[in-house]
Amino acid sequence: MTDGTPLCPECDADVEIPTDAMENELLSCAECGTELEIMNLNPIELELAPEVEEDWGE
Amino acid sequence: MRVALLVTHFRAEEKLILAAFNKRDISPDIILDRELNFDISRGSEQLAPSGIAWSAYDLIFERCVSTSRGMYALAVLNSWGIRSFNSYETAAICADKVRTSIALTQNGIPQPHTRVAFTPDSAMQAIEDVKYPAVLKPVTGSWGRLLARVHNRDSAEAILEHRQTLGDYNHHIYYVQEYVDKPGRDIRAFVVGDRTIAAIYRASNHWITNTARGGQATNCPVTEQLDEICVKAAQAVGGGILAIDLLEDARGNFVVNEINHTMEFRNSSKPTGVDIAQETIDYVIGQVEVVA
Known about the structure:
heterodimer, A: mainly beta, Rubrerythrin, domain 2, 3 strands, 26% strand, B: alpha+beta, Dna Ligase, domain 1, 13 strands
């Protein structure tokens, strides 16, 4: 993390967190495109989002 | 009013739904499906992951991206008499394309010619019965995944062998439909209760038009004819908050293709000008207040 900016756990790039971010929200790393999940907001913790499972959908 | 929002994680839709509840001064408890651990025989007085008894909730609003987790959670909660949107019964029918087709048939709602078979040999016969090109779909699945348009016997044999060899038992239920030669688009309509609140065309050069696969959304006028078939289709699967996917056949008639019970709508409010999240939540609140 640089200056409080969280890093992508996949590629180490800075990840911009939206101001209205929520815990357990999904977002994509702008650098590598990996889907991430915000596990904690204070301090910010990011993890790789779970792999899409076969029954996921609408 | 005490509401729990049951999610796998937060996507754009869940944030919009949460904001819509907040706009009506309701702050739902967020419950993650990964934290659920029901004692089925102990009933609704046991504590939810939020720390309060399930029985304290007037409503569970289910928005799990995991179809099976959401469906079984609703099965448990509804069995305890806890109200949810959608209901378990609606979710269970929509999650299963065979059950959806049965419900549509029982209610006289037009759909593509559909057959179900259980072995590669009988599935081959089913494909030839509906004629080429045919469409093979998994009975559970979404976002246009694992759909196959089958043009001839050679490709049918290959797909059936792959599914039989590589797939689990779910893929050995062969759901076969005629291919509807639609005009480069399909229609997704949003039904809330007994009203079609909005609809979009999903246009694509690809035969799979899901917006998750790049289909472009534009407004589709909700005509009386479209509203009628959509509301009937929604009622056929138990009613609630549903997205009806329709195709237009060569004569311009609507056929119902699929029904989704935890629909995505992030790409649909803008082209339709309808606040789908707010319309949905206002309806849900109204329904709970009527019962109370």
